[in-house]
Structures are given as structure tokens and as C-alpha cells.
Amino acid sequence: MTRFDAADPTERRKLYVDAITAHRTRGSGFCTLEVDDDSLTDDPDSGPDPELGIPWIQFADGTVILDCTDDELEALKALCDEFPAFKIDDLVRPEEAEGTNARISAKADPNRIAQFIDAAFRRVYDLSADVRVWVVEL
Questions:
Q1: What is the mean pLDDT of the chain?
Q2: Sign of the CA dihedral with 73 first, then 75, 78, and 82 last
Q3: What is the pLDDT of residues 4-38, one digit of tens each?
Q4: 98-108 burial, b for 16+ CB within 10 Å, e for fewer?
Q5: Full-model pTM
Q6: Nearest alpha-carbon partner for 49 in 63, 59, 35
Q7: How far apart are alpha carbons 118 and 113 in whole angstroms?
Q8: Where are the beta strands (DSSP E) in 36-125?
Q9: For residue 63, is it within any domain?
């Protein structure tokens, strides 16, 4: 990979495809995508709760993994209804953490996975169309 961030929706999806491909080629345990904290708004009525940290999504072995609040989980369930190849396999609610860790099986090609990831960042975390996302681990 030669680039590690993107802010345009089309470029973000290309970045996700490149990250998934690099992850699979390298045989790494997972790849992690993280929202640029400068892309987050201070508006309490939009975007993720800043108290919970920067939104991230991981991809590993055909599974999309993310943490979400109860409201974000409802948005994730609605998103999965629109992407039939994606199914929530496991929800873990650790006692020591706020929210839920969701594991979603992704039985799709990298392009469709990239579409799902971009939609998850935008709709689950209520982020703007020009949000910058980084590949932080491959």
C-alpha cells in the first residue's frame, strides 16, 4: 500500500479495498481503520460520543468488528438489513466497558465489504461525507 488515509467517499472505499487486500496478502491477524480525530465535530447533537473515543472498525478473516453504543447498535442492525451478505454473529457487552462489541460476518468481495465499512462509519457513527479515515494497522 502506498497511501493510508482518504476523506472522499470513493477514495475511502478504494482505501478499504487496498487495506483488505494487503491484510489478506500479508496474512496479518486483522486490519484496523480509524476515524481521524480532526474529522470529528464538537457538536453534541451529531457524530459519536467523544467520551467513548475515536470510532474504529477492524476486518479479520471475513469478519467486520466494531464497538458501538446501544443507539449505534440499532443503526448497525438496520444497516445489516440493507446488506444481506452481512450478518451480526456475536454481540459482547463487557461489564467493564460501555457499549457493545459487534462481530459481523462479511460473506462478500472486498468491494462490497468496503461499501459496508464506509456506510458503517457514516451511518452507525453519524459521520459526515467528508470524514477522513486512516488505515492504522495492517
A1: 90
A2: negative
A3: 999 999 999 999 999 999 999 998 899 999 999 87
A4: ebbebbbbbeb
A5: 0.91
A6: 35
A7: 9
A8: 56-60, 63-68, 86-92, 100-106
A9: yes
Number of H helices, E strands in the chain: 3, 7
- Could you tell me if residue 136 is inside a domain? no
Number of domains in the chain: 1
Query: Which pLDDT belongs to residue 39?
Result: 72
Give the three cell numbers for residue 88. Answer: 451480526
- Give me the domain span that covers residue 127: 5-39+47-131
Cα separation of 59 and 53, whole Å? 19
Cell representation of residue 71 = 443507539
Segments in the chain below pLDDT 70: 1-2, 41-52
Residue 33 lies in a domain: yes
